[in-house]
Design brief:
The protein is of the alpha/beta class. 32% of the residues lie in helices and 20% in strands.
Length: 269
């Protein structure tokens, strides 16, 4: 069957009531569930999602307060958001699942995993924003300015959609409220006891979170693999989807025994 050129075209929409929220999600594929938590810009499906859904059931949530969802004035911090997303997974009857988080969603996924380690088979963190240099701010601005922050080569990518100003203001206020400190001692202490097999991915040309932040996860998490994706920016799954899906799929199948292909697309530290 021919693949649509529109990312996410094969995904179908669903809604789950969890923790007092009505949470939208997009789903495609069959097999072991892979839950995805998006970044601060909200849910945006890309070619990486499409490729991953060819071999597993991918469930991409729109977290409460983002995108088209109702304003979220109740969640106090990212710890609570992680707990809410664990409830959403339970309400979908997922049992055990793989968990993937991107940027802000990477920090959320970490809190979900440390609070519910028995439910998480494997954890994938794409350019996670849980550990940051002092003063790091989320990308903002016009679609063109955002593209320059998110991608190594914005000229090769399709234009980002113009955001709805009201939704953008609501989302930015929520992210400011929920963001953890640049270095969260409580989280970092708990990461030392996180036994879940973990893969941390950074693009070598990330302009949002310096790729060298990946070393902290490697040092803190007992069973952590760190991979740098060559010639990619912050949004690896969108910019280098084949390389991204290749290494994520291999990790989810083999965990700590996974093998990095020695090609020009991937650099293993």
């Amino acid at each position: 069957m021919a693949q649509s050129d529109t990312p996410g075209a094969s995904f179908r929409e669903g809604v789950v009531e969890a923790d007092g929220f009505r949470i939208r999600y997009m789903e495609a594929g069959e097999g072991t569930p892979l839950v995805h938590l998006h970044g601060a810009g909200g849910l945006r499906l890309n070619r990486g999602h499409d490729l991953l859904s060819q071999t597993r059931r991918v469930i991409a949530f729109e977290m409460p307060g983002f995108g088209a969802s109702a304003e979220n004035l109740r969640t106090k911090n990212i710890v609570e958001l992680g707990a809410t997303m664990a409830v959403a997974c339970a309400k979908l009857g997922l049992g055990k699942y793989n968990l993937m988080g991107t940027s802000f969603g990477g920090a959320t996924a970490l809190w979900q995993a440390v609070q519910n380690p028995a439910s998480v088979l494997g954890l994938v963190l794409e350019a996670p924003a849980a550990i940051r240099p002092a003063g790091t701010v989320p990308p903002s601005g016009t679609p063109e300015e955002m593209a320059r922050r998110l991608y190594a080569h914005p000229e090769r990518m399709p234009p980002l959609p113009a955001p709805d100003p009201a939704v953008q203001a609501q989302t930015q206020a929520l992210v400011r409220r929920l963001r953890s400190p640049d270095r969260d001692p409580d989280l970092e202490a708990r990461l030392r006891d996180l036994a879940v097999p973990t893969l941390v991915l950074f693009g070598t040309l990330d302009r949002v979170i310096p790729p060298e932040m990946g070393r902290h996860y490697k040092e803190l998490i007992p069973n952590c693999q760190l991979v740098f994706v060559y010639d990619a920016g912050h949004s690896i799954g969108a910019e280098r989807p084949e390389a991204f899906a290749d290494v994520v799929s291999d990790f989810l199948e083999r965990h700590e025994a996974f093998v990095i292909r020695r090609t020009e697309t991937l650099i293993h530290p």
